[in-house]
Design a protein that fits this description.
Blueprint: E1 10-14, H1 21-32, E2 36-37, H2 46-50, H3 56-81, E3 88-90, H4 95-104, H5 107-121, E4 129-134, H6 137-147, H7 157-172, E5 178-183, H8 193-202, E6 210-213, H9 236-243, H10 247-258
Helix pairs in contact: 3-4, 3-5, 4-5, 4-10, 6-7, 7-9, 7-10
């Protein structure tokens, strides 16, 4: 078994749909011999949300909120009572729930949601390391089509753009734990084993603060060299998106700050 350098005990993988969260979480958990927490599935309201049916957003969001809290709370209790503390890998962070709530809910729905969200968030631990899989809407759309799940085929490119921009804004300001940003437009660790091994090797090194990863051998590596230095002020994608959101994303960002 290969150990991470000064291995964090809790690692979470984040990113929009089809960024590769679950795949990377499972592979990393296997590599370090850790249990893997997989995001709750089978939300009965999700298909209606993707079809943009009226009133479906609140039901879908509250189902996710309860399921994610119950899952992470149970994992925290198991960790606290374990005789031997072991690392754990999850394919989401709890904050993603609020990110989507800010995108999908009306003001009245969000006000009600926030009361329950904050109660739950205050009772959950924060991961030691978060790995954010940064992916463009165009690449996500191709992966959604390739996956071929019926409900996901209804997701519009416009909605994917909103989700990506919301993630970019969130992680541009994220400081709750160490953060590694992995741009997956130019690497494919799901289909390419060499990309996977390169990423896993990076994770044997420490991550401090916010740092960025893109192998230098890829076609756009020169444009991303500054990202590897961990200097967020030199991050053109994150910086420009944080300053250039459309009205819907600006509203969601304001909601996140108010909450």
């Amino acid at each position: 078994m290969v150990h991470l350098f000064e291995a964090p005990r809790s690692i979470a993988i984040e990113g929009p749909i089809r960024a590769g969260k679950s795949t990377l979480a499972a592979l990393l958990a296997e590599k370090i011999g850790a249990p893997c927490i997989v995001e709750p599935q089978q939300n009965p309201f999700l298909g209606r949300l993707y079809r943009e049916e009226k009133g479906s957003a609140f039901s879908a969001q509250m189902w996710f909120l309860m399921a994610r809290y119950e899952q992470l709370s149970a994992a925290a209790e198991r960790d606290a009572s374990a005789k031997e503390r072991v690392p754990v890998v999850a394919d989401y962070i709890f904050e993603k729930d609020k990110l989507f709530a800010c995108l999908n809910l009306s003001d009245d729905e969000l006000a009600l949601y926030n009361r329950q969200y904050q109660y739950f968030r205050d009772r959950l631990p924060t991961p030691d390391l978060v790995i954010y899989l940064q992916t463009s809407p165009q690449v996500l759309r191709r992966r959604v089509l390739r996956k071929g799940l019926a409900d996901e085929q209804m997701i519009s490119i416009g909605y994917l753009e909103q989700v990506v921009q919301a993630y970019e804004h969130f992680f541009f300001h994220y400081t709750a734990s160490d953060l590694l940003v992995v741009n997956t437009d130019d690497i494919d660790f799901v289909q390419n084993n060499q990309d996977l091994q390169t990423l896993l090797r990076r994770l044997t090194e420490p991550v401090r603060g916010t740092q960025y990863f893109l192998p230098l051998g890829h076609k756009n590596a020169d444009a991303h060299r500054s990202l590897l230095r961990g200097n967020r002020t030199q991050t053109p994608t994150l910086r420009s998106l944080a300053q250039g959101f459309g009205p819907g994303i600006v509203q969601a960002a304001q909601r996140l700050r108010r909450g």
